[in-house]
Amino acid sequence: MTPLQRYIAEEIATDHVDGLLSRREALRRLALLGVGTAAASALITACATDKTTTEPASSAPSSPAPTSAVPAPGMASAVATTPITWPGPNGQLQGSWAQAANPRGAVLVIHENKGLNDWVRSVAGRLAGIGYSALAIDLLSEEGGTGTFTDPAAATAALGNIAPDRFIADLRSGLDEVARRSPGQKLAAVGFCFGGGLVWRLLASGEPRLAAAVPFYGPLPDNPDFSGSKNAAVLGLYGALDQRVTSSEPAAKAALDQAGVVNELVVEPDADHAFFNDSGPRYNAVAAADAWTRLQDWFARNL
């Protein structure tokens, strides 16, 4: 398995351990990734053991606030998104564009392992609402787009089967399109979960155009070298209960410091993986609001 495939597989197994997926559904999703029953069972056991041994004993996941009772950060000022296409390195790419009224910068938004869905579009709209035009890219464009998958698990599996180099090429094309639509504006990238990991990979690829980058709970690539992305001020956001990803925070800090990259890494207390996603079961309104405030402050300083 590639590191990204393993990350997705571990996420599926952890969702089962946390009671978000039945064992049958977890095994089905792992099978779509090419993980056999015996290997899937072993992975689930390993993830259960890891969670038991690494989760802080004094902390229990707080109950997620109902999304109907706690509005997601930035929703009040969100801008509607528009579907767009543009020529990519391997064919037409798709995305959703949100134009800020008085732009102060422009952002490439990278989705979770579910592909480009309504929630990711809403994030692009929220960013535009606070002054940052945003493009939410669909990394399944070459497969016909996320919307062509009737089974969300199949979309996730398809993402797991794509070579990381293709993602980087498509993301750079996405930055080309953001720059074309936002002449003279500084550029940033924001990613969530799987997309957070791709923000780290984009930085490690030596992308010089980023003035800011915000990976939300994204897996760190092995032995990253960020020296080619010194222009990017990096705000990394983690959840304290998400040890599967948060355990890599010291390595990320060391690599950023070694490369001389301006950075701030924040671990939100009592927050789990995907705490910013107000459409999901791990949404944490307090952590999400704090992260949103930090993101705005970071962009104000660096874009």
The helix/strand order is: HHHEEEHEHHEHEEHHEH
* Count of helical stretches: 10
Q: Strand percentage, roughly?
A: 15-25%
Number of strands: 8
On the 0-100 scale, what is the average pLDDT? 93
Tell me the radius of gyration. Answer: 18 Å
Q: In terms of quaternary structure, what is this?
A: single chain
Q: Shape, please?
A: globular
Unreliable segments of 5+ consecutive residues:
57-68
Distance between the termini: 37 Å
| Order of strands in the sheet with most strands | 1-2-4-3-5-6-7-8
**What's the story with the biggest beta sheet?**
8 strands, mixed
Measured as a percent range, the helix fraction is: 40-55%
Please state the structural category: alpha/beta
Topology (SSEs and partners):
Layout: H1 3-17, H2 23-32, H3 37-54, E1 82-88, E2 91-98, E3 105-110, H4 118-129, E4 132-138, H5 152-160, H6 164-181, E5 187-192, H7 194-204, E6 210-216, E7 233-239, H8 243-246, H9 249-259, E8 263-268, H10 285-302
Parallel strand pairs: 3-4, 3-5, 5-6, 6-7, 7-8
Antiparallel strand pairs: 1-2, 2-4
